[in-house]
Amino acid sequence: MRPQKTRAVPGGPGTPPAQGVFAGIARRLTGFSLFVKVMGIALSLIALFGAETMIQTRALMRESMEKVLHGHSRLLARQLGSALTDPLITGDLFAASEALKAAAGVYPEVEYIFILSPQRRVLATTTAFPLSRALIDANAADADGAVREELFKTERGIIRDLAAPLMEGRLGTLRIGISREYRHRALNAMMNRLLWSGLLAALLGAAISYLLAFILVKPINDLMKGIDQVEKGDLNARVRPWFDDEIGRLTGAFNNMVSALGREKALKTGLVRKLIASQEEERQRISRELHDKTSQSLTSIKIGLKMLEAQPLPREALARCEDFRALLNSALDEIHELAVELRPPELGDLGLPQVVKELGENFRKTFGIKVECAIDEYFLANRLEAAVEIGLYRIIQEAFSNIEKHSGAGLVTVGFAKKSGAFLLTIRDDGCGFDNAWALGKPGRKPLGLSGMKERAEIFGGKFALVSKEGSGTEISVSIPAAG
Q: How far apart are CA 84 and CA 95, in angstroms?
Protein backbone atom coordinates (compact mmCIF):
# COMPACT_ATOMS: atom_id res chain seq x y z
CA MET A 1 0.00 0.00 0.00
CA ARG A 2 1.39 3.38 -1.01
CA PRO A 3 1.60 5.98 1.76
CA GLN A 4 -0.59 9.04 1.23
CA LYS A 5 0.86 12.51 1.43
CA THR A 6 -0.77 14.90 3.88
CA ARG A 7 -0.66 18.66 3.66
CA ALA A 8 -0.27 20.58 6.91
CA VAL A 9 -2.67 23.47 7.34
CA PRO A 10 -0.89 26.57 8.71
CA GLY A 11 -1.48 26.63 12.43
CA GLY A 12 -3.23 23.21 12.28
CA PRO A 13 -2.47 19.94 14.07
CA GLY A 14 0.09 18.90 11.42
CA THR A 15 2.01 22.16 11.56
CA PRO A 16 5.43 22.23 13.31
CA PRO A 17 5.39 24.36 16.51
CA ALA A 18 7.81 26.97 15.15
CA GLN A 19 5.87 27.31 11.91
CA GLY A 20 2.64 27.65 13.87
CA VAL A 21 4.13 30.44 15.99
CA PHE A 22 5.41 32.27 12.90
CA ALA A 23 2.03 31.84 11.21
CA GLY A 24 0.31 33.30 14.28
CA ILE A 25 2.68 36.27 14.36
CA ALA A 26 2.17 36.83 10.62
CA ARG A 27 -1.61 36.79 11.06
CA ARG A 28 -1.35 39.33 13.86
CA LEU A 29 0.95 41.62 11.89
CA THR A 30 -1.17 41.44 8.75
CA GLY A 31 -4.42 41.77 10.67
CA PHE A 32 -4.04 45.49 11.35
CA SER A 33 -6.15 47.98 9.45
CA LEU A 34 -4.87 49.49 6.21
CA PHE A 35 -4.51 52.89 7.89
CA VAL A 36 -2.26 51.41 10.60
CA LYS A 37 -0.20 49.59 7.96
CA VAL A 38 0.31 52.72 5.85
CA MET A 39 1.19 54.82 8.89
CA GLY A 40 3.47 52.08 10.20
CA ILE A 41 5.37 51.89 6.92
CA ALA A 42 5.67 55.69 6.67
CA LEU A 43 6.78 56.17 10.29
CA SER A 44 9.23 53.27 10.04
CA LEU A 45 10.80 54.82 6.94
CA ILE A 46 10.95 58.22 8.64
CA ALA A 47 12.55 56.70 11.75
CA LEU A 48 15.08 54.65 9.76
CA PHE A 49 15.96 57.56 7.47
CA GLY A 50 16.24 59.95 10.42
CA ALA A 51 18.40 57.57 12.45
CA GLU A 52 20.69 56.87 9.49
CA THR A 53 20.95 60.60 8.76
CA MET A 54 21.86 61.38 12.38
CA ILE A 55 24.47 58.62 12.52
CA GLN A 56 26.10 59.63 9.24
CA THR A 57 25.97 63.33 10.11
CA ARG A 58 27.58 62.73 13.49
CA ALA A 59 30.31 60.62 11.92
CA LEU A 60 31.04 63.25 9.26
CA MET A 61 31.03 66.10 11.77
CA ARG A 62 33.27 64.13 14.13
CA GLU A 63 35.72 63.42 11.34
CA SER A 64 35.63 67.04 10.23
CA MET A 65 36.23 68.30 13.78
CA GLU A 66 39.14 65.91 14.22
CA LYS A 67 40.73 67.29 11.08
CA VAL A 68 40.10 70.86 12.20
CA LEU A 69 41.47 70.11 15.67
CA HIS A 70 44.57 68.51 14.18
CA GLY A 71 45.13 71.49 11.88
CA HIS A 72 44.60 74.02 14.68
CA SER A 73 47.00 72.25 17.01
CA ARG A 74 49.72 72.16 14.34
CA LEU A 75 49.12 75.80 13.48
CA LEU A 76 49.26 76.79 17.15
CA ALA A 77 52.51 74.89 17.56
CA ARG A 78 54.12 76.71 14.62
CA GLN A 79 52.87 80.12 15.74
CA LEU A 80 54.10 79.64 19.29
CA GLY A 81 57.40 78.21 18.05
CA SER A 82 58.04 81.43 16.11
CA ALA A 83 56.88 83.66 18.97
CA LEU A 84 59.04 81.89 21.59
CA THR A 85 62.32 81.88 19.71
CA ASP A 86 63.52 85.37 20.75
CA PRO A 87 62.42 85.21 24.43
CA LEU A 88 64.11 81.84 24.86
CA ILE A 89 67.32 82.96 23.16
CA THR A 90 67.50 86.04 25.39
CA GLY A 91 66.35 84.03 28.44
CA ASP A 92 63.22 86.15 28.94
CA LEU A 93 61.07 83.48 30.57
CA PHE A 94 58.49 86.03 31.65
CA ALA A 95 57.82 87.03 28.06
CA ALA A 96 57.68 83.36 27.10
CA SER A 97 55.17 82.66 29.87
CA GLU A 98 53.00 85.60 28.77
CA ALA A 99 53.05 84.31 25.19
CA LEU A 100 51.86 80.92 26.42
CA LYS A 101 49.03 82.45 28.47
CA ALA A 102 47.95 84.62 25.53
CA ALA A 103 47.70 81.57 23.27
CA ALA A 104 45.78 79.57 25.91
CA GLY A 105 43.29 82.45 26.22
CA VAL A 106 42.63 82.47 22.48
CA TYR A 107 42.03 78.69 22.21
CA PRO A 108 39.56 77.47 24.85
CA GLU A 109 40.21 73.82 23.99
CA VAL A 110 43.83 74.15 25.18
CA GLU A 111 44.24 72.40 28.54
CA TYR A 112 47.89 73.27 29.08
CA ILE A 113 51.01 74.65 27.36
CA PHE A 114 54.47 74.37 28.78
CA ILE A 115 58.09 74.59 27.63
CA LEU A 116 60.70 72.00 28.51
CA SER A 117 64.41 72.76 28.37
CA PRO A 118 66.72 70.35 26.56
CA GLN A 119 67.37 68.89 30.04
CA ARG A 120 63.57 68.22 30.47
CA ARG A 121 63.07 71.01 33.02
CA VAL A 122 59.91 73.14 32.93
CA LEU A 123 60.77 76.64 31.82
CA ALA A 124 57.26 78.12 31.55
CA THR A 125 53.71 76.82 31.87
CA THR A 126 50.07 77.95 31.76
CA THR A 127 48.98 75.63 34.57
CA ALA A 128 48.45 76.83 38.13
CA PHE A 129 49.49 73.43 39.50
CA PRO A 130 52.87 71.69 39.36
CA LEU A 131 53.30 69.37 36.40
CA SER A 132 53.76 65.71 37.22
CA ARG A 133 56.72 63.77 36.01
CA ALA A 134 54.33 61.34 34.26
CA LEU A 135 52.89 64.18 32.18
CA ILE A 136 56.35 65.56 31.42
CA ASP A 137 57.62 62.20 30.26
CA ALA A 138 54.40 61.28 28.39
CA ASN A 139 55.57 62.73 25.05
CA ALA A 140 58.72 63.99 23.35
CA ALA A 141 59.60 65.33 19.93
CA ASP A 142 60.92 62.93 17.35
CA ALA A 143 64.66 62.58 16.92
CA ASP A 144 64.46 64.10 13.45
CA GLY A 145 62.88 67.23 14.87
CA ALA A 146 59.30 66.48 13.72
CA VAL A 147 56.16 67.24 15.76
CA ARG A 148 54.88 64.19 17.59
CA GLU A 149 51.32 63.60 18.78
CA GLU A 150 50.09 61.32 21.56
CA LEU A 151 46.63 60.59 22.90
CA PHE A 152 46.16 59.71 26.53
CA LYS A 153 43.38 59.70 29.04
CA THR A 154 43.33 61.94 32.11
CA GLU A 155 40.82 62.79 34.81
CA ARG A 156 39.76 65.69 32.55
CA GLY A 157 39.16 63.42 29.57
CA ILE A 158 41.13 62.44 26.48
CA ILE A 159 44.02 64.81 25.70
CA ARG A 160 45.80 65.25 22.36
CA ASP A 161 49.36 66.11 23.35
CA LEU A 162 51.75 67.71 20.84
CA ALA A 163 55.50 67.81 21.34
CA ALA A 164 57.06 70.42 18.97
CA PRO A 165 60.89 71.02 18.99
CA LEU A 166 62.07 74.60 19.33
CA MET A 167 64.93 75.32 16.94
CA GLU A 168 65.23 71.58 16.30
CA GLY A 169 65.34 70.99 20.03
CA ARG A 170 68.24 73.25 20.87
CA LEU A 171 65.94 75.65 22.76
CA GLY A 172 63.82 72.85 24.21
CA THR A 173 60.43 71.35 23.49
CA LEU A 174 57.01 73.01 23.31
CA ARG A 175 54.22 70.81 24.75
CA ILE A 176 50.58 71.60 23.99
CA GLY A 177 47.67 69.64 25.48
CA ILE A 178 44.38 70.02 23.66
CA SER A 179 41.21 68.54 25.15
CA ARG A 180 38.93 66.60 22.85
CA GLU A 181 36.03 67.04 25.29
CA TYR A 182 35.52 70.65 24.28
CA ARG A 183 35.06 69.63 20.68
CA HIS A 184 32.82 66.74 21.79
CA ARG A 185 30.65 69.13 23.77
CA ALA A 186 30.41 71.39 20.74
CA LEU A 187 29.60 68.36 18.59
CA ASN A 188 26.92 67.23 21.03
CA ALA A 189 25.41 70.71 21.12
CA MET A 190 25.28 70.79 17.32
CA MET A 191 23.80 67.28 17.25
CA ASN A 192 21.16 68.30 19.78
CA ARG A 193 20.14 71.22 17.60
CA LEU A 194 20.16 68.90 14.62
CA LEU A 195 18.10 66.36 16.61
CA TRP A 196 15.40 68.92 17.36
CA SER A 197 15.36 69.91 13.71
CA GLY A 198 15.11 66.22 12.80
CA LEU A 199 12.26 65.70 15.25
CA LEU A 200 10.44 68.68 13.78
CA ALA A 201 10.98 67.29 10.29
CA ALA A 202 9.81 63.85 11.51
CA LEU A 203 6.64 65.36 12.99
CA LEU A 204 6.02 67.18 9.74
CA GLY A 205 6.63 63.94 7.85
CA ALA A 206 4.27 62.08 10.21
CA ALA A 207 1.59 64.72 9.66
CA ILE A 208 2.00 64.46 5.90
CA SER A 209 1.95 60.66 6.17
CA TYR A 210 -1.23 60.84 8.25
CA LEU A 211 -2.84 63.09 5.66
CA LEU A 212 -1.79 60.82 2.80
CA ALA A 213 -2.92 57.71 4.69
CA PHE A 214 -6.25 59.38 5.44
CA ILE A 215 -6.66 60.34 1.80
CA LEU A 216 -5.87 56.77 0.77
CA VAL A 217 -7.86 54.92 3.44
CA LYS A 218 -10.95 57.15 3.82
CA PRO A 219 -12.45 56.21 0.42
CA ILE A 220 -11.76 52.53 1.15
CA ASN A 221 -13.44 52.80 4.58
CA ASP A 222 -16.45 54.51 3.00
CA LEU A 223 -16.59 51.75 0.43
CA MET A 224 -16.46 49.11 3.18
CA LYS A 225 -19.31 50.84 5.03
CA GLY A 226 -21.32 50.85 1.82
CA ILE A 227 -20.64 47.13 1.36
CA ASP A 228 -21.77 46.49 4.96
CA GLN A 229 -25.00 48.39 4.30
CA VAL A 230 -25.66 46.38 1.15
CA GLU A 231 -24.87 43.18 3.02
CA LYS A 232 -27.55 44.16 5.54
CA GLY A 233 -30.04 44.60 2.70
CA ASP A 234 -29.91 48.38 2.21
CA LEU A 235 -29.78 48.79 -1.56
CA ASN A 236 -30.17 52.56 -1.24
CA ALA A 237 -26.59 52.80 0.02
CA ARG A 238 -24.33 54.99 -2.08
CA VAL A 239 -20.68 55.96 -1.62
CA ARG A 240 -19.40 59.39 -2.67
CA PRO A 241 -16.23 59.14 -4.79
CA TRP A 242 -13.46 61.29 -3.31
CA PHE A 243 -11.05 61.33 -6.23
CA ASP A 244 -11.00 60.31 -9.85
CA ASP A 245 -8.44 57.56 -9.32
CA GLU A 246 -8.60 53.76 -9.19
CA ILE A 247 -10.51 53.79 -5.90
CA GLY A 248 -12.83 56.48 -7.24
CA ARG A 249 -13.58 54.37 -10.31
CA LEU A 250 -14.09 51.34 -8.06
CA THR A 251 -16.54 53.39 -5.98
CA GLY A 252 -18.42 54.38 -9.13
CA ALA A 253 -18.59 50.73 -10.19
CA PHE A 254 -19.90 49.84 -6.72
CA ASN A 255 -22.63 52.49 -6.94
CA ASN A 256 -23.62 51.26 -10.41
CA MET A 257 -23.72 47.68 -9.16
CA VAL A 258 -25.91 48.63 -6.17
CA SER A 259 -28.23 50.59 -8.45
CA ALA A 260 -28.51 47.58 -10.74
CA LEU A 261 -29.19 45.32 -7.75
CA GLY A 262 -31.83 47.77 -6.53
CA ARG A 263 -33.55 47.81 -9.89
CA GLU A 264 -33.37 44.03 -10.08
CA LYS A 265 -34.75 43.67 -6.57
CA ALA A 266 -37.54 46.16 -7.29
CA LEU A 267 -38.42 44.24 -10.43
CA LYS A 268 -38.30 40.94 -8.58
CA THR A 269 -40.35 42.34 -5.71
CA GLY A 270 -42.93 43.70 -8.14
CA LEU A 271 -43.17 40.35 -9.88
CA VAL A 272 -43.44 38.49 -6.58
CA ARG A 273 -46.12 40.86 -5.33
CA LYS A 274 -48.05 40.35 -8.52
CA LEU A 275 -47.61 36.62 -8.07
CA ILE A 276 -48.85 36.84 -4.49
CA ALA A 277 -51.80 38.93 -5.61
CA SER A 278 -52.54 36.36 -8.31
CA GLN A 279 -52.25 33.58 -5.73
CA GLU A 280 -54.62 35.39 -3.38
CA GLU A 281 -57.10 35.93 -6.21
CA GLU A 282 -56.87 32.23 -7.01
CA ARG A 283 -57.31 31.37 -3.33
CA GLN A 284 -60.34 33.64 -3.22
CA ARG A 285 -61.76 32.06 -6.35
CA ILE A 286 -61.26 28.56 -4.94
CA SER A 287 -62.75 29.70 -1.64
CA ARG A 288 -65.84 30.98 -3.46
CA GLU A 289 -66.04 27.79 -5.51
CA LEU A 290 -65.90 25.70 -2.36
CA HIS A 291 -68.46 27.86 -0.61
CA ASP A 292 -70.86 28.52 -3.46
CA LYS A 293 -70.68 25.33 -5.51
CA THR A 294 -69.14 22.45 -3.60
CA SER A 295 -70.90 23.32 -0.34
CA GLN A 296 -74.22 23.76 -2.18
CA SER A 297 -73.77 20.44 -3.97
CA LEU A 298 -73.07 18.67 -0.70
CA THR A 299 -76.01 20.44 0.91
CA SER A 300 -78.24 19.22 -1.92
CA ILE A 301 -77.00 15.67 -1.31
CA LYS A 302 -77.73 16.12 2.38
CA ILE A 303 -81.30 17.21 1.59
CA GLY A 304 -81.69 14.25 -0.76
CA LEU A 305 -80.58 11.91 2.03
CA LYS A 306 -83.11 13.47 4.36
CA MET A 307 -85.87 12.95 1.81
CA LEU A 308 -84.65 9.41 1.27
CA GLU A 309 -84.83 8.76 5.01
CA ALA A 310 -88.54 9.74 4.91
CA GLN A 311 -89.21 6.82 2.59
CA PRO A 312 -90.03 3.35 3.95
CA LEU A 313 -86.57 1.77 3.89
CA PRO A 314 -85.05 -1.19 5.64
CA ARG A 315 -83.41 -0.45 8.97
CA GLU A 316 -79.90 -1.12 7.57
CA ALA A 317 -80.47 1.37 4.76
CA LEU A 318 -81.62 4.01 7.23
CA ALA A 319 -78.51 3.41 9.33
CA ARG A 320 -76.34 3.84 6.25
CA CYS A 321 -78.13 7.07 5.41
CA GLU A 322 -77.41 8.33 8.92
CA ASP A 323 -73.71 7.53 8.42
CA PHE A 324 -73.67 9.32 5.06
CA ARG A 325 -75.30 12.36 6.60
CA ALA A 326 -72.64 12.48 9.34
CA LEU A 327 -69.93 12.27 6.70
CA LEU A 328 -71.59 15.07 4.73
CA ASN A 329 -71.78 17.27 7.83
CA SER A 330 -68.08 16.64 8.50
CA ALA A 331 -67.18 17.38 4.87
CA LEU A 332 -69.21 20.63 4.94
CA ASP A 333 -67.38 21.74 8.10
CA GLU A 334 -63.97 20.93 6.58
CA ILE A 335 -64.84 22.74 3.36
CA HIS A 336 -65.98 25.76 5.35
CA GLU A 337 -62.74 25.79 7.37
CA LEU A 338 -60.66 25.36 4.21
CA ALA A 339 -62.52 28.23 2.51
CA VAL A 340 -61.91 30.47 5.50
CA GLU A 341 -58.23 29.48 5.61
CA LEU A 342 -57.80 30.18 1.90
CA ARG A 343 -59.37 33.62 2.23
CA PRO A 344 -60.78 34.80 5.57
CA PRO A 345 -63.92 36.74 4.63
CA GLU A 346 -63.49 39.13 7.56
CA LEU A 347 -59.99 40.31 6.52
CA GLY A 348 -61.36 42.84 4.08
CA ASP A 349 -63.91 44.17 6.55
CA LEU A 350 -62.41 43.95 10.04
CA GLY A 351 -58.68 44.23 9.42
CA LEU A 352 -55.77 42.02 10.36
CA PRO A 353 -55.70 42.34 14.20
CA GLN A 354 -59.36 41.43 14.61
CA VAL A 355 -59.07 38.49 12.21
CA VAL A 356 -56.01 37.26 14.13
CA LYS A 357 -58.06 37.40 17.35
CA GLU A 358 -60.67 35.15 15.77
CA LEU A 359 -57.94 32.90 14.34
CA GLY A 360 -56.48 32.62 17.83
CA GLU A 361 -59.84 31.74 19.32
CA ASN A 362 -60.32 28.97 16.75
CA PHE A 363 -56.75 27.83 17.44
CA ARG A 364 -57.55 27.60 21.17
CA LYS A 365 -60.75 25.66 20.58
CA THR A 366 -59.10 23.26 18.14
CA PHE A 367 -55.75 22.60 19.83
CA GLY A 368 -56.23 23.83 23.39
CA ILE A 369 -53.43 26.45 23.09
CA LYS A 370 -54.31 29.86 24.54
CA VAL A 371 -53.68 32.88 22.29
CA GLU A 372 -53.36 36.45 23.62
CA CYS A 373 -53.21 39.56 21.40
CA ALA A 374 -51.57 42.91 22.24
CA ILE A 375 -52.64 45.59 19.75
CA ASP A 376 -51.48 49.23 19.58
CA GLU A 377 -54.14 51.91 19.40
CA TYR A 378 -52.84 52.81 15.94
CA PHE A 379 -54.38 49.66 14.47
CA LEU A 380 -57.78 50.44 15.95
CA ALA A 381 -58.12 53.46 13.66
CA ASN A 382 -55.86 52.59 10.72
CA ARG A 383 -55.63 49.80 8.19
CA LEU A 384 -52.52 48.41 6.55
CA GLU A 385 -52.09 47.96 2.84
CA ALA A 386 -54.16 44.98 1.69
CA ALA A 387 -51.13 43.11 0.34
CA VAL A 388 -49.25 43.69 3.62
CA GLU A 389 -52.20 42.43 5.66
CA ILE A 390 -52.39 39.28 3.55
CA GLY A 391 -48.63 38.70 3.84
CA LEU A 392 -48.63 39.11 7.63
CA TYR A 393 -51.72 36.90 7.92
CA ARG A 394 -49.92 34.11 6.02
CA ILE A 395 -46.88 34.50 8.31
CA ILE A 396 -49.12 34.15 11.36
CA GLN A 397 -50.82 31.11 9.85
CA GLU A 398 -47.47 29.43 9.25
CA ALA A 399 -46.26 30.33 12.76
CA PHE A 400 -49.42 28.88 14.33
CA SER A 401 -48.97 25.71 12.26
CA ASN A 402 -45.36 25.33 13.48
CA ILE A 403 -46.40 25.97 17.09
CA GLU A 404 -49.12 23.33 16.92
CA LYS A 405 -46.84 20.73 15.31
CA HIS A 406 -43.54 21.21 17.14
CA SER A 407 -43.59 23.51 20.18
CA GLY A 408 -45.81 21.87 22.79
CA ALA A 409 -46.69 25.41 23.93
CA GLY A 410 -49.54 26.33 26.22
CA LEU A 411 -49.59 30.07 25.50
CA VAL A 412 -49.00 32.15 22.37
CA THR A 413 -48.77 35.96 22.40
CA VAL A 414 -49.29 37.96 19.21
CA GLY A 415 -48.37 41.66 19.24
CA PHE A 416 -49.01 44.48 16.76
CA ALA A 417 -47.10 47.73 17.24
CA LYS A 418 -45.93 50.77 15.27
CA LYS A 419 -42.40 51.83 16.21
CA SER A 420 -39.88 54.12 14.51
CA GLY A 421 -41.74 54.26 11.21
CA ALA A 422 -42.30 50.51 10.96
CA PHE A 423 -45.05 47.99 11.70
CA LEU A 424 -43.84 45.35 14.12
CA LEU A 425 -45.42 41.91 14.42
CA THR A 426 -44.23 39.60 17.22
CA ILE A 427 -45.26 36.02 17.88
CA ARG A 428 -44.05 34.40 21.11
CA ASP A 429 -44.69 30.97 22.53
CA ASP A 430 -43.69 29.26 25.78
CA GLY A 431 -42.90 25.95 24.09
CA CYS A 432 -39.82 23.75 24.04
CA GLY A 433 -37.88 25.96 21.64
CA PHE A 434 -35.04 24.77 19.42
CA ASP A 435 -31.47 25.52 18.35
CA ASN A 436 -31.38 28.53 16.01
CA ALA A 437 -28.14 27.47 14.35
CA TRP A 438 -29.42 23.98 13.74
CA ALA A 439 -32.71 25.17 12.27
CA LEU A 440 -31.29 27.90 10.04
CA GLY A 441 -27.70 26.93 9.35
CA LYS A 442 -27.44 23.16 9.16
CA PRO A 443 -26.02 22.12 5.75
CA GLY A 444 -28.65 20.48 3.58
CA ARG A 445 -31.49 21.56 5.85
CA LYS A 446 -34.14 23.88 4.35
CA PRO A 447 -36.80 24.92 6.88
CA LEU A 448 -39.42 25.82 4.29
CA GLY A 449 -41.85 27.34 6.80
CA LEU A 450 -39.27 29.73 8.26
CA SER A 451 -37.86 30.52 4.82
CA GLY A 452 -41.35 31.28 3.53
CA MET A 453 -42.01 33.66 6.40
CA LYS A 454 -38.66 35.39 5.84
CA GLU A 455 -39.29 35.73 2.10
CA ARG A 456 -42.76 37.18 2.66
CA ALA A 457 -41.32 39.80 5.02
CA GLU A 458 -38.55 40.74 2.60
CA ILE A 459 -41.03 41.14 -0.28
CA PHE A 460 -42.39 44.21 1.49
CA GLY A 461 -38.90 45.53 2.34
CA GLY A 462 -39.15 44.17 5.87
CA LYS A 463 -36.93 42.15 8.18
CA PHE A 464 -37.52 38.76 9.73
CA ALA A 465 -35.90 37.69 13.00
CA LEU A 466 -36.08 34.44 14.93
CA VAL A 467 -34.90 33.93 18.50
CA SER A 468 -35.21 30.53 20.10
CA LYS A 469 -33.45 28.46 22.71
CA GLU A 470 -34.06 24.92 23.76
CA GLY A 471 -36.39 24.94 26.76
CA SER A 472 -37.10 28.70 26.56
CA GLY A 473 -39.68 29.06 23.80
CA THR A 474 -39.50 30.92 20.51
CA GLU A 475 -40.02 34.52 19.37
CA ILE A 476 -40.62 35.56 15.78
CA SER A 477 -40.54 39.25 14.87
CA VAL A 478 -41.37 40.84 11.55
CA SER A 479 -40.72 44.53 10.86
CA ILE A 480 -42.36 46.13 7.79
CA PRO A 481 -41.56 49.76 6.85
CA ALA A 482 -44.61 52.00 7.20
CA ALA A 483 -45.67 53.65 3.93
CA GLY A 484 -45.13 57.43 3.92
A: 8
Dump the DSSP string for 318-387. HHHHHHHHHHHHHHHHHHHHHHHHHS-TTHHHH-HHHHHHHHHHHHHHHH--EEEEEE-THHHH----HH
Domain housing 34: 20-232
Q: What is the pTM of this model?
A: 0.48
Amino acid 259: pLDDT: 87
Asked whether 209 and 39 are in contact (CB, 8 A), the reply is yes
User: 481 has which bridge partners?
Assistant: 422
Residue pLDDT, tens place only, 14-26: 555 555 666 666 6
Q: What is the pLDDT of residues 359-402, one digit of tens each?
A: 888 888 888 889 888 888 887 778 887 778 888 888 888 888 88
Same domain, 308 and 358: no
Q: What's the number of domains the chain is made of?
A: 3
CB 112 within 8 A of CB 177: yes
Per the prediction, the chain carries an average pLDDT of 79
pLDDT tens digit sequence for 240-273: 888 777 888 888 888 888 888 888 877 877 777 7
359 and 453 in a single domain? The answer is yes
| Final residue in a domain of this structure, among 280, 315, 343 | 343
Residues 6+ positions from 59 with CB-CB distance below 8 Å? none
